[in-house]
Design a protein that fits this description.
Layout: H1 2-12, H2 23-36, E1 37-39, H3 40-48, E2 56-59, H4 63-68, E3 75-76, H5 82-89, E4 96-99, H6 107-117, E5 122-126, H7 128-134, E6 139-141, E7 144-146
Parallel strand pairs: 1-5, 2-3, 2-4, 4-5
Antiparallel strand pairs: 6-7
Length: about 160
């Protein structure tokens, strides 16, 4: 009888209406996800560490967007120009981390696809420039360097380590 109640509750529950994947399928999916994505705080930590981070950051937005603010040290290459200019700006042996505006924009995914089709190893930075700024990391604008106070909804308020 417990099983019947559990099935009925699951059928009515929109989260469990479709059963979770098996642990093996979930491990494959989430493992693959990490191969395709990097988060803002991991990119910032790698760039802040001494030495070569082992990747280049690419901003795939327009020049006007770039001027509003971008990750320090990023390469500016709008998605529409990747096929034409990537070989002149990027070393094909160095992985590329793409970003665009934020989670509501798929520009970084389009840029990553264009680079992958050219043979580059590529990851997308989740959160884009929006979360870079919201997490309180320094950025550059056409006027110079800026930093905003970290948004407590996106970054830990105390010690900077979210524990994940």
């Amino acid at each position: 009888m417990v099983m019947t109640t559990q099935r009925t509750a699951s059928a009515a529950n929109p989260v469990l209406r479709v059963a979770p994947a098996s642990p093996a399928a979930a491990a494959a999916y989430f493992g693959a996800s990490l191969a395709f994505h990097a988060d803002v705080s991991d990119v910032a930590a790698a760039l802040a560490a001494d030495g070569d981070p082992g990747f280049v950051v690419l901003d795939s937005r327009s020049t006007a967007s770039w001027d509003q603010g971008h990750v320090p040290g990023a390469v500016h290459l709008p998605t529409a120009l990747i096929a034409e200019q990537a070989r002149n700006l990027l070393d094909p042996d160095v992985p590329v981390v793409t970003y665009c505006w934020g989670p509501g924009c798929n520009g970084a995914a389009r840029a990553a696809l264009a680079l992958a089709e050219l043979g580059y190893q590529v990851k997308e930075m989740l959160g884009g420039f929006e979360y870079w700024a919201r997490e309180g990391f320094e950025f550059e604008t056409w006027e110079g360097r800026e930093r905003r106070t970290a948004d407590p909804l996106t970054a830990p308020a105390a010690d900077g380590d979210c524990g994940c």
